[in-house]
Amino acid sequence: MNELPNCPKCNSPYTYQDGNLLVCPECGHEWSPETEASEEAEGLVVRDANNNILHDGDSVTIIKDLKVKGSASDLKMGTRVKNIRLVEGDHNIDCKIDGFGAMKLKSEFVKKLS
Fold first, then answer.
1. Which of 68, 72, 88, 100 has the fewest C-beta atoms lying within 10 Å of its C-beta?
2. What pLDDT score does 94 carry?
3. How do beta strands 101-105 and 60-62 pair?
4. What is the span of the domain harbouring residue 65?
5. Domain with 26 in it: what CATH number?
6. Which residues form the Protein YjdM C-terminal domain (predicted)?
């Protein structure tokens, strides 16, 4: 019998195949096994709050007001950030924001602009 991989989102072992997709019955996550294999081969994979893959040079929008240490003002929801760079670590987006300067953001607080 073919061993299916655990769910990449919740690590559930109860995944099943539905056509070309793999599905997790516990969290409802669906993914393509080919996409997963190609992402692992790439190395660094960063996803936004909507689970879209981010790349260097993308533009993103901040989805939540963020407090900035050492600054009197906050980054407001809806702030656009252009030309991001992906880096390793907890704060995996390196960027420059108008009015704030160089900053590192967590990918879970941004969404990709199409």
1. 72
2. 95
3. unpaired
4. 59-112
5. 2.20.25.10
6. 46-112
